[in-house]
Design goal:
The protein is mainly α. Helix 5 runs parallel beside helix 7 and helix 6 packs antiparallel against helix 7. The chain starts with 6 loop residues before the first helix and ends with a helix. 15% of the residues are buried.
């Protein structure tokens, strides 16, 4: 006949298990610690939200501004979407390389310097596209469109897309 284990042996087994090292702390909803949000966290969250909003707001804005010049065929819309997806991928790659191979101070200085350069050359009155359509060669329209988008808003979109991963990486130092 087996005897039932005592309460002490249960406690000892529980304390010797691999889960006993981790404590679960549940805070009361009225606790002050739950309401306290550091300013840095709020600033990072606001900046992340604004950069994502700006990135995905500028895509249809630029595409619609091209309609009077080129038209609204599906090929034009697809070319613009592929351009923005490529810019997003290059921006993420830039952020990854910057975080992996540069110290924090140089990351911040380089990124802010590039943002200032992009801001300086950004056309504020309207998007001025250097675009001339050759009706004899319509197959070159996507290439001309890519060149025009890259020279006009390529660098700002690349930097906006890299802001989110860079900020998330910098947040770990705060």
């Amino acid at each position: 006949r087996r005897s039932l284990p005592s309460a002490q042996s249960k406690t000892r087994r529980a304390s010797s298990s691999r889960y006993s090292r981790h404590r679960v702390i549940v805070l009361h909803p009225q606790s002050k610690e739950l309401r306290r949000v550091p300013i840095v966290t709020g600033l990072f969250a606001t900046t992340l939200g604004l950069s994502a909003t700006l990135l995905f707001w500028i895509q249809p804005l630029v595409a619609k501004s091209l309609l009077p010049l080129i038209g609204g065929s599906p090929a034009i819309w697809h070319t613009v979407i592929v351009f923005f997806q490529a810019t997003l991928l290059i921006g993420y790659t830039y952020a990854h390389v910057l975080v992996k191979f540069q110290p924090l101070k140089r990351q911040i200085l380089l990124h802010l310097g590039l943002i200032l350069i992009a801001f300086w050359f950004l056309p504020f009155d309207r998007f001025v596209f250097s675009f001339s359509i050759d009706p004899m060669h319509p197959e070159w329209i996507p290439v001309q469109l890519w060149a025009s988008l890259f020279t006009t808003i390529g660098l700002p979109c690349l930097l906006i897309s890299s802001t989110s991963p860079l900020l998330q990486s910098w947040y770990r130092y705060c």
